[in-house]
Amino acid sequence: MDRIENALVACEKVINGIEDETISTSSALLQCSKIARLTNDEEAIIWFQYEYGGYPRTNDGHIKKNAWEMAYQNGRGYIEDGKSYIFTELASELEEKIRAQQDAINNYTTQGTSVGGEYAYVAMNKLTNSVENSTNYLIRSITNNQKRLALLKSKYYEYAIKKQIELSFGNVAEDVFRKYRKKVDNAFSSLSQETLLKLQAIEGKLDTNNPELYSQALTTCRRLF
Fold first, then answer.
1. H or E, element range at 22
2. Taking a C-beta distance cutoff of 8 angstroms, is the pair 187, 199 a contact?
3. CA–CA separation, 89 vs 100, rounded Å?
4. 161/215: higher pLDDT
5. In 11, 12, 118, 218, which residue has its Cα 20 to 30 A from 107's Cα atom?
6. pLDDT for residue 134
7. 88, 92, 66, 62: which is closest to 77 by C-alpha?
8. Is the model's pTM score more than 0.85?
9. Long-range CB contacts (within 8 A, 24+) of 114-120
10. Cβ partners under 8 Å of residue 84, min gap 6
11. Cα gap 34→223, rounded to integer Å
12. Backbone angles phi, psi at 86, to 5 degrees
């Protein structure tokens, strides 16, 4: 299996995995990185390296300008209070956060809790409010993290679709070219040696920037016809 075929297999894994929800976003990222490597897509290779290992920062802790712009253009950008920002959590970090927060929600409950004494009602009310506030905070956080993860997933999916189309079209075009070249080669084999030499001479004259040689090449073509 050559590089193009391997890349197409990786495209299928990303596309089908995301559509069928059988692949994690972080796994889709690794497959996209493989696609970029196999197709020598240099810009995408850098992008996916940042997506996997983190966006590089300057000595004062800010994301480097080129990396920031790449992140913003690839789904990480958002506007808040009229200013542009990016979120920097990696796909794997967002997945882990969501899992941990969902587990935490299940632990926030007043079920089985009892309080006694003169201020039992007040204590229970405070506990109930605390659990409700904590749960609501976690729900908002989970929703936000899921939204960010979905944005990254859509970008990885979009990349895999784009590369699949490019590679599939390239294979078709290459196949068509191969068939026509075979026909041309077969046609050449039936020509006389003298004609072949003349064709070579025409090709040599067309590779120059001399108008006089162009004219001679055209004359030779007319004679061959």
1. none
2. no
3. 15
4. 161
5. 118
6. 74
7. 88
8. no
9. none
10. 72, 77, 78
11. 54
12. -130, 150
Pinpoint the alpha helices (H) of 75-119.
Answer: 91-107
Phi then psi for residue 79, to 5 deg, are -110, 135
Residue 103 pLDDT greater than 70, yes or no:
yes
How many alpha carbons lie under 13 Å from residue 58 in its C-beta half-sphere?
Answer: 7
Distance of CA 192 to the CA centre of its chain: 53
pLDDT mean over 71-96: 95
User: Is the Cβ–Cβ distance between 216 and 202 less than 8 Å?
Assistant: no
Using DSSP's 3-state secondary structure scheme, residue 152 falls into helix
Tokens matching residue 166? 């490019």
Looking at residue 71, its amino acid is A
* Distances in whole angstroms, Cα of residue 54 to Cα of each of 32, 78, 110, 213: 16, 18, 40, 58
Lowest mean pLDDT among 49-63, 66-80, 161-175: 161-175
Which residues are paired to 77 by β-bridges? Answer: 86
The pLDDT tens digits of the residues spanning 13-48 come to: 999 999 999 999 999 999 999 999 999 999 999 999
**Token reading at 217:** 């090449």
Q: How confident is the model at residue 108 (pLDDT cuts 50, 70, 90)?
A: low
Q: Domain segments of the chain: what residues?
A: 3-188, 191-224
Distance CA 105, CA 41 (A): 42
